[in-house]
Amino acid sequence: QVQLVESGGGLVQPGGSLRLSCAASGRIASINTMGWYRQTLGKTRELVATIRGGGSTNYVDSVKGRFTISRDNAKNTAYLQMNSLKPEDTAVYYCYSNIRPTYGLSRDYWGQGTQVTVSS
């Protein structure tokens, strides 16, 4: 099986920083896009950032210049460095990845979610 495990959420003051990690494990043949979405209560899940296998990145406008997504292909791990955090960044952050397992076709996988709270 394939799974995504997230870590790094928590409580931080406005202007602070956090780094989220997402590690993919299991019977993986290849990993395509990795990324992060976020969701607050009563709202739809919002794309935050994605990174393709070749390294090209995409960000939602509200985080450009503050968040940086990266990946370590040798470790099957993606990172989201979040700087200059604002209260409106408070949400549950979900790791996402499109993965081809050794036993089937490519499909989307999701992490369990990690809470990020920005508050003084």
How would you characterize the overall build of this protein?
The protein contains no helices and eleven strands. It has strands at residues 2-7, 10-12, 18-26, 28-39, 46-51, 57-59, 67-72, 77-82, 91-101, 107-110, 114-118. Strands 2, 4, 5, 6, 9, 10 and 11 form a seven-stranded mixed beta sheet that branches. 31% of the residues are buried.
Distance between the termini: 41 Å
Find the structural class using helix and strand composition: mainly beta
Mean pLDDT: 96
- Please give the count of helices: 0
Radius of gyration equals: 14 Å
Instruction: Work out the helicity level.
Output: under 10%
User: Which runs of at least 5 residues are low in confidence (pLDDT < 50)?
Assistant: none
Largest sheet: 7 strands, mixed
Count of individual beta strands: 11
